[in-house]
Design a protein that fits this description.
The complex is a heterodimer of chains A (554) and B (188). By secondary structure, chain A is α+β, with helices and mostly antiparallel strands. Chain A contains 22 helices and twelve strands. Chain A has a ten-stranded mixed beta sheet, with helices on both faces. A two-stranded antiparallel sheet of chain A has the order 8-9. Chain B has 188 residues and is mainly alpha-helical. Chain B is 46% helix and 10% strand. Chain B is built from eight helices and five strands. In chain B, the strands form two sheets. Chain B has a three-stranded antiparallel beta sheet. In chain B, helix 1 crosses helix 7, helix 2 runs antiparallel to helix 3 and helix 3 packs across helix 7. Chain B starts with a strand and ends in an 11-residue tail after the last helix. The chains are: A alpha+beta (554), B mainly alpha (188). At the A-B interface, strand 9, helix 20 and helix 21 of A face strand 1, helix 1, helix 2, helix 4 and helix 5 of B.
Chain lengths: 554, 188
């Protein structure tokens, strides 16, 4: 591993076989390249302005509100509908039919007719229809205990307990944020050319950020209703500490498998960023100080990061231990040459996966000028499907499989535990679900998320053909392998396109997939409630819309 | 008439094609073709609905499947004119011709056996019984332009496609409902 010239060679990107394993995906930490961070940087850099243009909420907490963000060329408005939901109706499940609040992000400023149309559709969520003037559809439920506590205190002229805020971290949690043309909303292709919406999930980030403002306004409003002249507003540091929760189940898990191009670009950007930082010849005192502060903050966060899930608790214990070791290590003198690389190499030997991924995030944090441009490379044009090159020979195709899918050969698909699970979509609410192949019906309608098995089956089928035959001719008689063949050709130039694990295995944890995606979103407080369901917080301890200037002035 | 987004159009076309018996990877191409037409103001979902319905009742043949035909000449681009035979719902070939153009850098197109180019309106008029088509390698007239507006889909066609799409989902059971992830206590 170490040789005389090792320190002089540029850092290589980490091997996909290491980086794309489920356990490492399940240890992913948000970095400054996350979509949330990219969004906030742009808001500040471009001088976006914010104001609340409508507040018509009654003493029961029912009504509507509009929140406007104005940029250099365009503006966007979050339209919110609030209702007083009976407790028995409140549910985070996709099968829920009513919510405390529902939202749409409008492209521009809605007129009264738009508001009437939205009032008839948005509260219905999946049962309503949107138009191309809407970018996202979402809904949120109150975190009942915390919401009550905050309203209660503010109504009495007091501030809520910091400890209570730490316990939950948000007043309301979204249970879905739909974009990209769902339910009739604008297609991504219609707006991806706008700089502010080019990076992944920017419309969704914008929506959630504005929802955060609404959740606080609603709590203050209810406090006002209850306490009248005695009521106070939320103190600035407590406002900042509240984010927006999100409750996510299996619905999000297939996404990373279905979008190998996106997954590759996200991971490639992050790994390239790591390599760039490692390659820096020296470290300035400012950046060292910033790094130490990042670690100190991470330590504080890890102490307030709670979870009831035993797997996550074990990971948190590892994380806290590893962060302490990083802090200790970086108190010592820093090497003169390639100090960041020296720290990284130490970490690869000394830290667990959680610690390594946290170290990665901390290494990127002080180096915005070095890595932030990589955020522009994380989107993908998915409007066309990847065309199969049918002129490729069977032999060449098998060579690609051997080269890029060798990892799939380590699973024994004759072992029942390796095919114990199957992914499917429920008829009831078109929800992705995970079934036990031996205990449940439905495996004949399995969704093709078991990529490892599919590639092995393709290879086995091709092994019986003439190696010189064209893939096109082979696939004409093997249509069941077409999607796998497409994937194999697609992945050839994309090192991080695949999750390099068996998603059908009995011990597969969907929360590992969820954590990866949510880390790229920029979510904090990853809190699994089961192996298949997770709570997170977005925008916690970040600037809020009203930290921008007012839109009214300009 | 319902206006679907392109994303919905593609997803729906894919599910319906799978439900109608196309394999996943072939359904991906059917979905791409349907979306391509919708982007150009042609009711791709309506055409797909008619084709899937006909195919499920009458089986394959005598007219060739437009999806499989398009896949064949895209996978292995012909160097010279190729007679495609009688192809059903031939307007579904247009997206594949466009994909072939991107592959080869030339301007392939669809023609009648006598060599006259077949314009989209002529292809539109041909349903499951199909029309004889020759694929010419170069020289085709300009393509259909992409449009901004969404195409309306008839409720009847959506119902047809929905029935096929249902074949890809697993019906409710008490066991499956409990297992989607969220625990019993959602509220706190």
């Amino acid at each position: 591993m170490t040789g005389p010239d090792r320190a002089c060679r540029p850092a290589a990107l980490r091997e996909p076989d290491r980086v794309m394993r489920l356990s490492r995906l399940g240890s992913a930490h948000p970095t400054r390249l996350s979509f949330l961070r990219q969004f906030l940087r742009r808001m500040k850099r471009e001088g976006w302005r914010f104001d609340r243009t409508l507040w018509q909420v009654d003493e029961n907490g029912e009504g509507r509100a509009c929140y406007r963000l104005k940029g250099p060329e365009r503006c966007y408005t979050l339209v919110a509908f609030a209702r007083d939901l009976p407790a028995g109706m409140r549910s985070d499940r996709v099968i829920a039919t009513a919510w405390d609040a529902t939202f749409a992000l409008f492209d521009g400023e809605p007129g009264e007719q738009d508001l009437v149309r939205l009032a008839a559709n948005v509260p219905l969520q999946e049962a309503g229809r949107l138009s191309p003037r809407e970018l996202t559809l979402s809904r949120a439920n109150r975190s009942v205990r915390l919401f009550e506590h905050v309203v209660d205190r503010l109504a009495a002229g007091r501030q809520p307990d910091r400890a209570a805020l730490d316990e939950v971290g948000y007043l309301m949690r979204t249970t879905a944020v739909y974009g990209s043309g769902k339910f009739g909303a604008a297609d991504r292709v219609a707006y991806a050319g706008r700089p502010e919406l080019a990076a992944p999930f920017q419309a969704e980030m914008m929506s959630v950020w504005l929802i955060r403002a609404f959740t606080i306004d609603l709590a203050e409003h209810m406090a006002q209703v209850r306490g009248g002249g005695v009521a106070v507003g939320l103190a600035p540091d407590l406002r900042r500490w509240l984010g927006v929760g999100n409750s996510t189940g299996l619905g999000m898990a297939p996404f990373l498998v279905r979008h190998p191009g996106l997954l590759n670009n996200w991971v490639l950007a992050r790994e390239t960023a790591l390599a760039r930082v490692r390659d820096l010849p020296s470290a300035t005192p400012e950046r060292i100080a910033a790094f130490r502060e990042t670690i100190a903050t991470a330590i504080v966060n890890s102490e307030t990061w709670r979870s009831a899930h035993p797997v996550q608790q074990a990971k948190l214990a590892d994380l806290r231990r590893d962060l302490a070791r990083i802090a200790e290590r970086t108190e010592e003198a820093w090497p003169m040459r390639r100090p960041w690389d020296a720290l990284w190499q130490w970490g690869e030997g000394a830290l667990g996966e959680e610690g390594q991924e946290a170290l990665l995030a901390a290494l990127l944090e002080p180096h915005g000028e070095v890595v932030d441009d990589l955020g522009d490379a994380m989107a993908v044009d998915e409007s066309a499907i990847f065309p199969i090159d049918g002129t490729m020979t069977v032999e060449r195709t098998r060579a690609l499989i051997a080269r890029h899918y060798g990892w799939a050969g380590r699973f024994d698909f004759d072992d029942p535990s390796q095919t114990a699970l199957f992914w499917y979509v429920s008829e009831e609410k078109l929800e992705p679900r995970l079934g036990d192949r031996r205990a449940e019906a439905g495996a004949e309608r399995e969704q093709p998320l078991g990529i490892a098995r599919a590639v092995m089956e393709l290879d086995a089928a091709l092994s019986t053909r003439d190696p010189a035959e064209s893939l096109g001719a082979a696939l004409a008689t093997l249509p069941q392998h077409r999607h796998t063949a497409r994937r194999v050709q697609f992945a050839a130039g994309r090192p991080y396109a695949e999750i390099r694990d068996n998603l059908l295995a009995a011990d597969m944890l969907p929360i590992d997939i969820l954590r990866m995606k949510l880390a790229f979103f920029g979510a904090s407080r990853f809190d699994p409630r089961s192996d298949r369901w997770v709570r997170i917080s977005l925008f916690q301890n970040e600037d809020a819309p009203d930290d921008l200037g007012s839109a009214e002035g300009g | 008439m319902i206006l679907l987004s392109l994303n919905e159009t593609r997803a729906f076309a894919h599910k319906a094609s799978c439900g109608a018996g196309y394999r996943w990877g072939v359904a991906e191409e059917a979905a791409m073709a349907t979306e391509w037409l919708a982007r150009r103001g042609i009711d791709g979902l309506g055409i797909l609905a008619a084709w899937l319905e006909h195919r499920s009742r009458m089986g394959s043949g005598p007219a060739a499947c437009p999806i499989e035909t398009g896949i064949a000449f895209c996978d292995l681009p012909p160097a010279s004119p190729r007679a495609l035979g009688t192809v059903a719902a031939p307007v579904l070939l247009l997206p594949f011709v466009d994909a072939l153009a991107a592959r080869t850098g030339r301007r392939p197109g669809l023609a009648a056996p006598g060599g006259e180019w077949l314009a989209p309106p002529e292809l539109m008029g041909r349903g499951p019984r199909g029309v004889q088509i020759v694929l010419l390698a170069d020289g085709a007239p300009p393509d259909l332009p992409v449009r901004d507006a969404r195409v309306g889909v008839a409720a009847r066609d959506l119902a047809t496609l929905e029935a096929f799409a249902r074949e890809t989902t697993v019906p409710l059971s008490a066991h499956s409902r409990g297992d989607a992830g969220a625990g019993l206590l959602d509220n706190d």
